[in-house]
Design the sequence.
């Protein structure tokens, strides 16, 4: 992506969940072999029913949390707009039905 089009942290909107992956690395002498698993933060999201993940650095966690919150706010706003539109459509249909009844009389 060209530098002029690189999104800023404040403009990111992400859908998904912030998760922590826990795993063993496989080295026999590592602490994870004794049960102290390695942890990695990740963004988990679904595309076409397939779960995808983006591994994150600790410094990215606040940026991702803020982007997830922006998505939730945008989704809530869209839902309010949809409900208002349905209400307006119902009112319009009722007005048209009433006008048609008046014309028949």
Sequence:
């Amino acid at each position: 992506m060209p530098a002029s089009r690189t999104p800023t942290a404040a403009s990111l909107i992400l859908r998904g969940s912030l998760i922590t992956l826990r795993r063993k690395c496989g080295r026999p002498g590592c602490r994870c072999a004794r049960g102290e698993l390695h942890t990695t933060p990740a963004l988990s999201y679904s595309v076409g029913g397939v779960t995808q993940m983006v591994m994150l650095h600790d410094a990215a966690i606040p940026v991702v949390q803020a982007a997830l919150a922006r998505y939730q706010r945008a989704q809530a706003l869209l839902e309010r707009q949809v409900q208002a539109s349905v209400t307006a459509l119902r009112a319009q249909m009722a007005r048209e039905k009433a006008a048609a009844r008046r014309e028949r009389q």
Q: What stands out?
A: The helical segments are 61-104. The first helix runs from residue 61 to 104.
